[in-house]
């Protein structure tokens, strides 16, 4: 089972930059996309339902904003869009898809804003997101959680930690939630498998040639529940794939 997560920064823009060619070549089993910035009726048939995939849309009510999309070869047993909290759900941030042997939660966490005005909203989403994860675990679900978390957890996860102590995405209060999430047993599988790897980033500012210089942040991640550890074959960041200011990340699992 090969799962990819990618903030495409606009699905229509990504299409113009070769997204569908990448999809046809890579052929992941499941693709979780964030920040699609489109509603289903705004895109062509090739994006509405690529060959071989079921498409599950959770678009924001506001056009051109946020939104998540799941392309899946295996048919989920059940699907839930949102966390049952209207403030988040109107922004299209969460898809929960139950499969035979795990449940996938694909999410686009809010950005705190340059002026930090959305940090309280972001933290409220984080808390309710964890409550949902905890409830699913309590009900016996093995979880694969992926998406744009919008927070770099530790100094190793961004190129310039000292300069960004007061930047949303690296605020102590945001990082403290990631601490609580991982301490609750959700495993950042890329970092667990690459504990000392520096320069591994998934997002780069579009200014000042940051990507070419690899001045980036690792704010996209896969988290798993510990029971899935033994099934993990690989967890990668695909920094060579263009088409967005983020790059795809992937998780490969053995069959359960």
Description:
The protein has 256 residues and is an alpha+beta fold. It has a single domain, classed as Endonuclease/exonuclease/phosphatase (Deoxyribonuclease I, Chain A), CATH 3.60.10. It is 23% helix and 25% strand. It has seven helices and 14 strands. The strands form three sheets. A six-stranded mixed sheet has the order 3-4-2-1-14-13. It has a six-stranded mixed sheet with strand order 5-6-7-8-12-9. β6 and β7 (103-108) form a beta hairpin. The protein is globular and about 45 Å long.
Summarize the structure.
This protein is an alpha+beta fold. Helices cover about 25% and strands about 25% of the residues. The chain has a single domain, classed as Endonuclease/exonuclease/phosphatase (Deoxyribonuclease I, Chain A, 4-Layer Sandwich).
Q: Mean of residue pLDDT?
A: 97
What is the C-level CATH assignment?
Alpha Beta
Reported for the largest beta sheet, the result is: 6 strands, mixed
Poorly predicted ranges (pLDDT <50, ≥5 residues)?
none
What features would you highlight for this structure?
single chain; 256 residues; alpha+beta; Deoxyribonuclease I, Chain A; six-stranded mixed β-sheet; 14 strands
């Amino acid at each position: 089972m090969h799962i990819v997560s990618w903030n495409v920064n606009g699905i229509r823009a990504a299409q113009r930059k070769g997204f569908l060619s990448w999809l046809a070549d890579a052929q992941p089993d499941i693709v979780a996309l964030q920040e699609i910035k489109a509603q289903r009726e705004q895109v062509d048939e090739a994006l509405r339902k690529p060959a071989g995939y079921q498409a599950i849309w959770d678009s924001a009510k506001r056009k051109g904003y946020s939104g998540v999309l799941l392309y899946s070869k295996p048919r989920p047993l059940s699907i839930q869009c949102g966390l049952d909290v209207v403030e988040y759900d109107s922004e299209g941030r969460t898809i929960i898809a139950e499969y035979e042997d795990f449940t996938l939660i694909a999410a686009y966490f809010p950005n705190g804003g340059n002026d930090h005005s959305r940090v309280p909203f972001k933290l409220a989403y984080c808390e309710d997101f964890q409550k949902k994860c905890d409830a699913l675990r309590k009900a016996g679900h093995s979880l694969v959680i992926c998406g744009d978390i919008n927070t770099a957890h530790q100094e190793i996860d961004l190129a310039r930690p000292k300069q960004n102590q007061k930047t949303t995405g690296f605020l102590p209060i945001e990082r403290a939630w990631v601490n609580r999430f991982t301490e609750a047993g959700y495993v950042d599988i890329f970092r667990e498998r690459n504990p000392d790897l520096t320069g591994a980033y998934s997002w780069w500012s579009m200014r000042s040639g940051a990507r070419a210089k690899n001045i980036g942040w690792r704010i996209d991640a896969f988290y798993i529940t510990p029971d899935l550890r033994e099934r993990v074959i690989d967890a990668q960041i695909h920094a060579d794939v263009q088409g967005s200011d983020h790059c795809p990340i992937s998780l490969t699992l053995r069959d359960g």
